[in-house]
Amino acid sequence: MTIALNGEEVAEKIRGAFPGPVVAADKAAVIVTNQSLYQVAEFLKNTAGFDFDYLTDLTAVDYLDYFEVVYHLTSLKHNHSLVLKTRCYERGKPVVSSVVNLWRAADFQEREVYDLMGITFEGHPNLKRLLLWEGFVGHPLRRDYL
Amino acid sequence: MEIERYEVISSDEIDAAEALRINSLKEASQQAIPDPDRWLEEELRRNVLLTTVDYAVDWARSRSIFPLMFGLACCAFEMIGSAASRFDISRFGMDIFRWSPRQADLMIVAGTLTWKMAPAVKLVYEQMAEPKWVIAMGACAISGGTFRESYSVVPGINHIIPVDVYVPGCPPRPEGLLYGITKIHKKIGKESIKTS
Amino acid sequence: MVIKTEPFILNIGPQHPSTHGVFRLRATLDGEVVVDVEPVIGYLHRGIEKLAEGRTYTQNIPFTDRLDYLASITNNLAYVLAVEKLAEVKVPERAEYLRIIMAEMMRIASHLMAVGFFLNDLGAMMTPVLYMWREREKLLDLFEMVCGQRLTYNYMRIGGVSHDIPEEFLPALKRFVAEMPGFIDEYDQLLAGNEILLVRSKGVGVLPEELAINSAASGPVLRASGVKWDIRRADPYSIYDRFDFDIPVGSAGDCYDRYWVRVQEMRQSVRILEQAIPQLPEGEVCAEVPRLLRPPVGEVYGHIEAPKGELGFYLVSDNSIAPYRFRIRPPTLINLTALKDMVIGWKVADLIITFGSIDVCLGEIDR
Known about the structure:
The complex is a heterotrimer. By secondary structure, chain A is α/β, with parallel strands linked by helices. Chain A has helices at 7-17, 37-46, 106-117, and strands at 3-4, 22-25, 29-32, 54-63, 66-75, 80-88, 95-97, 120-122. The longest helix of chain A is centred in the last third of the chain and has 12 residues, at 106-117. Chain A is globular, with a radius of gyration of 15 Å. Chain A starts with a strand and ends in a 24-residue tail after the last strand. Chain B is α/β, with parallel strands linked by helices. Chain C has a single domain (47-366), classed as Orthogonal Bundle (Cytochrome-c3 Hydrogenase, chain B). Chain C is α+β, with helices and mostly antiparallel strands. The model of chain C has no long low-confidence stretch (mean pLDDT 88). Chain C contains 15 helices and nine strands. In chain C, the strands form three sheets. Chain C has a three-stranded antiparallel sheet with strand order 2-3-4. A three-stranded antiparallel sheet of chain C has the order 7-8-9. Chain C has a two-stranded antiparallel ribbon with strand order 5-6. The interface between B and C is large, with 41 and 43 residues. Strand 1 of chain B pairs parallel with strand 1 of chain C, so a sheet runs across the interface.
């Protein structure tokens, strides 16, 4: 059985390594700040005992006050999983750092989130629209489109 | 021996050119094109000298149509199913599905058409030589289907190209497609060599 | 003497016999050798994720059929499992067994198509496809007996399945299960020693193990590269832990291994069916679920082992009748991430068969 790790315990370990990033943690997920996302992701990937080498899913949700980018991580070696989240509060120009250098799987998924939600990923080598054409105006999956 | 290498055009330029084509086609296709109804004109029928020649030519044409495989989505697999050994489409003389539009005369559009794909459909239709016919197969090709309200779906392929026969279903059974093909045979039987 | 050369961009366009749907590849070629490959998708983007936010949970089940249209039942199953996890609905035993039987039949049908079209791309013009289609027609007849449809079934419901099987289904299924290993042996005999298949696919399009894990490949693509990860074993859903089956794992990660893994998986599916059919209990086929289901506030990620990989649904609910966010994790889009590394340095013909061996389905990539 893939064990879903308890967010609070993982948050304790992250706070042990870096004091700043963790904003909130409940049983299901760990929420970190925007600026420290790359650091925390690298820590989760490289630390023995976590070894999150498989990025299962990368997506974004539009709660009207903020955008939430959700990462589902899995470790094939230990067979456990974790949900990592981060929030962007600027509606006009939301920016998150890209994790393509850690997990190649983020390549197409970040392009899709940029296309449909409008969140820019810094550090992505080829951030273009994926599913819609270049001249399309707007980001359809936002809650205030149409 | 030296080898000089040149730069190619960048993919951004290709994308921008494609975007221009898609947006201009979307502006131009807001109304449905009326279905072709040449076969309804009665005066063509009155010329006695040509009727037997017409009959022979139409009979030959309808029994050896070359279809163009334009499967876009799920309906494509029912189209391939009608060409497989159980619902044999080669009993109607149509067993070689051509992939090149220059060699085909019937275009079966099966599946959902999106605005991004629309210029390609129009280009392929224009590359076919006259006389040519179009079958719209499946609910998505007829009117957009379940995806009609979406931001990126064309509400029916008759906004882009004129359609002769509509085959409803989601997806239609292979027998349904074969019934649509017999209707095309009847429609070809009413054509005259004067106008085609 | 100076020879001028320039790289040439070839557009393997959306309408093409080997692209398995409306998929476009912009390949930069130097002579016949591939230098760069850029996939362009979106020609079938129908906006399912946005449309689903305006429909109830049960009304979204037909949308999931149209994602991977060669394996519709497993899509339905993944979505329904995710909603049941969110709303905490318990499924009766007979429904669980029926779901497993349908899912494994669907896996056989989907792999038959994958193998048939892979051989089509290699050049065996339509012969393997027509042979595989013969068995697929038998399976489609069985599905039609139960669901009434040949391609987009809409059979699963939240809490079970939509209706019970008729009497003639089980004898026909037993006949099919008894004959199927014989057919797989027939295909093996025709193809296993075939020189063209071996020369053209062994060593071609290699996906090394670390890259496969890093680019989150799943399904037969991951298992052919040597990683033993199958969701039916690692995170069992429904009642898979009661059945005894093996997980075929390849070693080299090339096109031949991906073909071999699929053929072995068909044999294992027949084995699961042989165990499940005698154990089918009596009972109801669907739990009591309110017509307009309102799950509690929360989110869930439910995943299954679909024939093409790990299909997952991430649902966010705000206690209303429609989902707040309906996200589909497409296995084939993520399997395509490493396509560039697999084909650079090879020729155009190898590009076509490598792409064919990944077995994509455009409805799922574009949604």
